[in-house]
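Notes from the pairing session

We agreed to fold both candidates in a single pass and log them together. This is the raw record for the first candidate, unedited. Please don't reformat it; downstream parsing expects exactly this layout.

Candidate A
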Amino acid sequence: MSLTHIQSFVAVAEEGHVGRAARRLHLSQPPLSRHILSLEDELGTPLFERTPRGMRLLPAGTAFLAHARRILAEVDAAVHTVRKAAVDVPEAN
């Protein structure tokens, strides 16, 4: 499971539509759809109901969404911490 797959999942879950999520992520629809299918395959269950109007979370998707958001928040916090630490490093004499 890659961070890209998790980001893709969250975007589709929040937008409810692959096209809008693709625009939000600056991707085209086919790779985004592949990310979602790959994630569902890895988890062994569908996360979305595909409807003519978009994508609706299934119970498994709803259960995964909170975890996915926490994962992305932790990654953002780690990046922030590392960047701050790099700025705060005293120079060697």
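Candidate B (folded immediately after A)
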Amino acid sequence: MRARLVVFPIKGRKWCFSRSVDPFAAQSPSAVTPTTVRGLWKKISSESKPINANAELLVDFISDKMNKAWMGLEIAPEGSMKSKIHGLGLKLLARVKPSEIFLKSISKEVTSVQVSYPPSLDPRLVRRRLRHIAMSGTILHKKYLIGSVTLLPLTTAFTVLPLPNIPFFWVLFRTYSHWRALQGSEKLLKLLSNHSNPETDDADESNNNNKPEQEAQSPTCVLLPSEELYKLLGEASEEGLDEETIVEICKLFHLNKIDVLKYRNLV
């Protein structure tokens, strides 16, 4: 499966990295997970799979349960306890960095990436920035994943309280989120590194300036300049792109407006 990535400057030296979501894409059958603990155990015990594959299945099972619980909070009556928990959850989610959301979008099913960017940017710089965010993600989210796993047993102590164990579920979500971001970082780095050796890419750049960009492409990473994106960017001010322009870009490339605005408002 090919993922379409969109890269463009959004405010000063800040760049936005986002993945297009195909609104007509159907869910892959391989993404279907068991709905019960019994079904999960049956699938794990009946099929001969490596430990990491069973771990993925367990993570998907927990994720499915968390998503269903979150959907239940969304439809809760106004003013109820569930509605207040949902509001608190939205505030916490607003603090999640957009780079984490971007890396999580690079799922294990992705086999190649197509990068759309304004032609005013050097394609090799675009590739290096993508590689940098992937390499940073592997280090950062591995560290946070270990920290979240360490906190999980501690937050179970709050189950003695006559209230929903919000700390436990939040730490559980963060554990899952860092796991997915780590997997996405490693996947993206692999797809980008198939282009060339990261250690020699910068050194060879001066020797490759006269080569057509198509020769620098890899089957797993294709960079395509977008004139439409360039026209929408126009002359961005130091305050960054205005919301109207961001909305137009999101409509054109099927991006999540809330995630894109996070890049502009990131301190």
